């Protein structure tokens, strides 16, 4: 035996202390072994080994042994109970849609048992597990359970007005939508989401997440409604670091030929760059640069039923972020799977039985009273001569006024000839007028001085010479340097400017000067129907871009089509592009089924009114006759009513809420022909009754004045 062995052998065997009952035999043996080798090893090694073989903290913080649904579930909530754990100070619940296991959310400090997991989506399978919190330590997750939320017919819109602000160690979230909301967040973009204490159902904005470490966080908020919950909308913020954080991809709401992107308001972010591509391998195309945080309308247009990707880049002053991860979406297929109209040719050459069927459809009292139907036109723009008058007698009869909105004045009111005037293609971007002040001044006078509270703007040219009188809108080649292919984009830009000036989205009261936007007056010289389709599509795109989807209720103007007919084929047989057809005669291209045979059914879903000009002429002449004459062109009102009934669809929404208008109707008084004002008045009243018979919503008498103002009048 060496001297060291002798020396160690003289030591007393250490005595073991009483082991707590919670330790099992394995732990007891391990501790006795450590105490024995303590004679040989330094103290710090002994401590390390002891820590290594000690039971894990989670083993001391057990999960509830049972976790169950303790009462009837609803469409938004699952009520739970569980067996309490003595060592637990709180609990966490983790849940996810069973079909999306990679998107898990932890509810921190879940209320004591029993409690309710709320803010769920209707008719959905959820997987849920629970664990204990023991002071600052978390236990293991229990075995998960799966339950199904109930069905409900209701819906829930996403939060509105969301803003996110980052501090040194906190994130503030606010919103303008009412009701309950849920907030969740995570560090980076791969961990489980965390709903902090009190954020499962927040009754009032704002909410603050505090005590955060530096880093880049994802923050999401959703709206909780009675029937279901909305999708989350996302944002990215960086704490304790400079630069410009990479944003989360936008929430995308696809349509058939476009998509809405939700670009969130984020502290430090001044705008976004947007790009998209077809499929997952195509070339990226720039859609917009430095777009302010808003709802952006991606509308190149896109192809129907086609997969796309979109990505965004944040701009923070002089800095810019990396692009977000691409968001994949697929454009919709129109509900009809093709042409939107059920019977676009209905109305042509109807026989007596078919006309009687239309009479029977409308054989009920009109929903519109005569007083509400009446309006007046400013044919010839005579009313401009009366603008300085302090009042007028017309508003004692009606406050509805239809104006021929001279689009060429918006682009250039300094010249008097079509060929010389600035055209939409001469502006940047194409279709953006710079001279709207003239028309805006007129509308301000008409509304605020003369008292016309409901004004319709029918878009047409004033200075079309030396073209035909039927050239009431710009030629194909003058909308865009791209020709017909650029009409949609150019008119969309024009309509956006019109909305900004005459009916802004945030406008109230007298700031909304125009109530109805009519896409053309009598555009009978556009024989290529796709050109008019482009005008309609551009107008609706501008409405959606400025106001949001019509279903959201934010449109400040009604969208109305030009004046067409539904009782005969087009009687102009020539089809020439970019030039007057039929030598300016009475023959024309004006059958409504051709002009509304669009491929994007959303246009027809959002139309507020279709229009005709049912003057009581003998067909193809300018010879007047009484409105009840079976040979009168006044009879076209029945055909148009029948056409609307034949193509209206409650199932697809096509023309579902569309009304009938007659924006020009009258009988010229003329002493030479023996038509006095009494005869004229009787004619107007008789015609108004006929239009009421077929449920026309509005009828505009032509004309407000028979001649311009003079010193003798």
Q: What is shown here, in short?
A:
The protein is of the alpha/beta class and 713 residues long.
Q: What quaternary form is this?
A: single chain
The span between the termini is 139 Å
CATH topology of the largest domain: TIM Barrel
Q: What is the total tally of β strands?
A: 32
Helix content: 10-25%
Largest β sheet strand count, sense and barrel closure: 8 strands, parallel, barrel
CATH first level of the largest domain: which class? Alpha Beta
Secondary structure class reads: alpha/beta
Q: If you average the pLDDT, what whole number results?
A: 84
Gyration radius, in Å: 36 Å
Strand order of the largest sheet: 25-26-27-28-29-30-31-32
Overall structural domain count: 4
Shape: elongated
- As residue ranges, the low-confidence spans are 1-59
Helix run count: 15
CATH superfamily of the largest domain: Glycosidases
Q: Supply the CATH architecture of the largest domain.
A: Alpha-Beta Barrel
Strand percentage:
15-25%
């Amino acid at each position: 035996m060496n001297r060291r062995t002798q020396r160690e052998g003289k030591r007393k065997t250490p005595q073991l202390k009483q082991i707590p009952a919670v330790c099992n035999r394995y732990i007891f043996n391990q501790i006795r072994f450590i105490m024995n080798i303590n004679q040989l090893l330094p103290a710090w090694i002994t401590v390390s080994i002891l820590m290594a073989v000690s039971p894990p903290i989670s083993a001391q913080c057990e999960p509830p042994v049972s976790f169950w649904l303790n009462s009837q579930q609803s469409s938004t909530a699952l009520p739970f109970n569980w067996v309490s754990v003595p060592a637990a100070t709180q609990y966490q619940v983790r849940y996810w849609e069973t079909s999306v296991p990679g998107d898990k959310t932890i509810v921190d400090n879940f209320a004591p048992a029993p409690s309710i997991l709320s803010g769920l989506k209707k008719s959905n399978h959820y997987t849920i597990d629970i664990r204990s919190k023991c002071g600052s330590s978390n236990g293991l997750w229990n075995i998960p359970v799966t339950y199904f939320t109930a069905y409900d017919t209701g819906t829930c819109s996403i939060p509105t007005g969301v803003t996110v602000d980052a501090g040194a160690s906190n994130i503030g979230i606010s919103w303008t939508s009412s009701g309950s909301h849920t907030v969740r967040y995570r560090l980076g973009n791969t961990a489980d989401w965390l709903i902090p204490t009190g954020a499962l159902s927040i009754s009032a904005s704002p909410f603050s997440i505090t005590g955060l470490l530096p880093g880049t966080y994802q923050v999401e908020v959703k709206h909780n409604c009675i029937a279901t919950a909305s999708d989350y909308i996302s944002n990215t913020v960086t704490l304790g670091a400079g630069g410009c954080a990479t944003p989360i991809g936008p929430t995308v709401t696809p349509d058939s030929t476009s998509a809405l992107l939700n670009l969130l308001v984020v502290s430090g972010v001044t705008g976004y760059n947007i790009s998209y591509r077809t499929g997952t391998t195509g070339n990226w195309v720039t859609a917009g640069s430095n777009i302010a945080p808003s709802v952006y309308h991606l509308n190149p247009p896109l192809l129907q039923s086609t997969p796309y990707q979109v990505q965004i880049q944040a701009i923070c002053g002089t800095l810019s972020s990396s692009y977000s991860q691409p968001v994949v979406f697929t454009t919709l297929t129109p509900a009809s799977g093709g042409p939107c109209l059920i019977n676009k040719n209905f109305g042509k050459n109807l026989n007596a039985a078919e006309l009687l069927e239309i009479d029977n459809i409308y054989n009920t009292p009109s929903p519109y009273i005569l007083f509400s139907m009446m309006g007046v036109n400013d044919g010839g723009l005579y009313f401009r001569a009366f603008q300085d008058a302090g009042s007028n007698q017309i508003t004692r009869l009606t406050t509805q006024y239809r104006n021929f909105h001279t689009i060429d004045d918006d682009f250039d009111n300094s010249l008097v000839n079509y060929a010389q005037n600035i055209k939409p293609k001469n502006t940047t971007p194409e279709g953006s007028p710079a001279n709207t002040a003239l028309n805006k001044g007129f509308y301000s006078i008409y509304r605020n001085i003369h008292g016309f509270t409901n004004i319709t703007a029918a878009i047409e040219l004033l200075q079309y010479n030396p073209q035909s009188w039927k050239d009431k809108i710009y030629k194909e080649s003058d909308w865009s340097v791209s020709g017909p292919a650029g009409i949609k984009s150019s008119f969309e830009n024009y309509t956006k400017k019109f909305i900004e000036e005459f009916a802004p989205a945030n406008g109230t009261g007298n700031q909304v000067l125009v109530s109805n936007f009519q896409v053309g007056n009598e555009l009978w010289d556009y024989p290529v129907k796709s050109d008019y389709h482009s005008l309609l599509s551009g107008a609706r795109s501008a409405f959606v871009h400025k106001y949001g989807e019509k279903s959201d209720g934010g449109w400040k103007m009604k969208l109305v089509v030009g004046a067409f007919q539904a009782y005969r084929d087009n009687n102009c047989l020539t089809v020439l592009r970019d030039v007057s057809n039929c030598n300016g005669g009475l023959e024309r291209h004006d059958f409504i089924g051709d002009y509304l045979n669009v491929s994007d059914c959303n246009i027809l879903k959002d139309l507020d009114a279709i229009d005709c000009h049912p003057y009581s002429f003998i067909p193809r002449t300018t010879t007047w006759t009484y409105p009840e004459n079976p040979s009168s062109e006044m009879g076209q009102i029945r055909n148009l009513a029948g056409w609307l009934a034949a193509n209206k669809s409650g199932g697809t929404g096509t023309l579902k809420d569309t009304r009938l208008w007659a924006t020009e109707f009258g009988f010229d008084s003329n002493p030479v022909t023996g038509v006095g004002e009494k005869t004229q008045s009787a004619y107007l009243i008789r015609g108004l009754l006929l239009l009421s018979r077929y449920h026309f919503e509005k009828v505009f008498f032509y004309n407000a004045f028979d001649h311009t103002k003079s010193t003798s009048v």
